[in-house]
Amino acid sequence: MFFSNPQKKVRKAATEQLQMAEKIFAYREDILPEADRAALKNVIDRMRHLLKDKSTPTEGFKIVQNEMEPIMKKTGGTFYPRNWIAENAEMVLFAAIVAIGIRTFFLQPFKIPTNSMYPTYNGMTAAVYVEEEGPSLPVQAFRFITLGAKHKAIKTDAGGELSLKITGKGNPDIKLVKGRKWLVLPAQKLRYTFYVGEEPVTVDLPIEFDMRQVLMPLFESAHGRPAFLSDGTRVLKTGIIAGEGDTAFSFDLLTGDQLFVDRMSYHFRRPKVGDPIVFRTDNLENIDRDNRGKYYIKRAVGGPGDTLKIEPPVLLRNGEPNTGAEAFNLNAGQVGEYSGYVYPSSSSNYPLPFFRGDDPVTIPEGHYFAMGDNSPNSADSRMWGFVPQTELVGKAFFIYYPFSHRFGPAK
């Protein structure tokens, strides 16, 4: 059986009261009236003296504590009596400083917006449900929590054939509209207009999302038939027929991989060929104005002094197939969804004026060459040139969300 020691408890309470009184004196000494300052100093000195004397009786502490209490209340300002703000402000401020420090110097969270590094990392992707029903509400909730999936459905009360509003050139008719990010922050969205029969249904999606992932499954079988609605609206028919109140099609918008960036390592060593690097775009020489002020993630495929050339599907560094990352071998062998390193085609979304790949390029000192693992669909150093080492933020370190098969150390 354990017994408490009353003397020890009283000394502990006296010590805590003394520490608070000393804090009040330290912070408010210069603004206290002379009489209040002297009274506070007097009880502080007396309490210190009692605590130094191991033989001080319990009653001695209580006498000084009773004298100290009203003096502390009178001189304590926001420190005493304690309130939630005064008691927790320092802790909250300290936690914020620590979090900012970690983000600035050690680990920075980063979300991958595009699929230039696919399939190593995912940007925003889509799971399209054309012939089968979309997931049930419980499954939607589960997919939202684990994969960041947001379900979108195209349906109206009227039935009819599904079509997409297009421009005179046959491209999707897109409008830039105002929206929200995380339900709070203002953000711009792209609005696509579908029709079920003659009834319009709009879908607002993030600007960086590649809508081809949704449109290709819709038109791959029907090939799309240009037509006009009764009001003259130009559309592309899909051949998909929906009954009254039915869903014509639906899809899940899946969030891009979210990872931590190691900001420490490159202060002590140079990046290695094969590293997945994150860098600022502010001072990239040939990048357009709209893409400045952003952060990109690509793979360092060459460093200072290296010479690069593409012999599809292989990327050569100094005359040999590139090494340093598994993605180099997977692309060279065109394994799975790795399509290999390619020359730009006439249908490419990204013109590559800086480096086509057929002629070798040598990287100058203090610079790196960055390319996406998804070579046919990556805007990278082939477009805007070398990445100065001074622009490097760090190395992709750990994918912490979503909880997919890519969760874990970044490759």
Give a description of the structure.
It is a single chain. The chain is of the alpha+beta class and 411 residues long. It has eight helices and 21 strands. The chain has helices spanning 6-28, 34-52, 58-75, 84-105, 137-147, 212-219, 326-332, 381-384; strands spanning 107-111, 125-129, 150-155, 160-165, 174-181, 185-196, 199-206, 225-228, 234-242, 247-254, 258-262, 276-280, 295-302, 307-311, 314-317, 320-321, 361-362, 367-371, 387-388, 392-401, 408-409. Strands 1, 11, 12, 13, 18, 19, 20 and 21 form an eight-stranded antiparallel beta sheet that branches. Strands 4, 5, 6, 7, 8 and 9 form a six-stranded antiparallel beta sheet that branches. A four-stranded antiparallel beta sheet has the order 16-15-14-17, with helices on one face. Helix 1 packs antiparallel against helix 2 (34-52), helix 1 (6-28) packs parallel to helix 3 and helix 2 (34-52) packs antiparallel against helix 3 (58-75). 26% of the residues are buried.
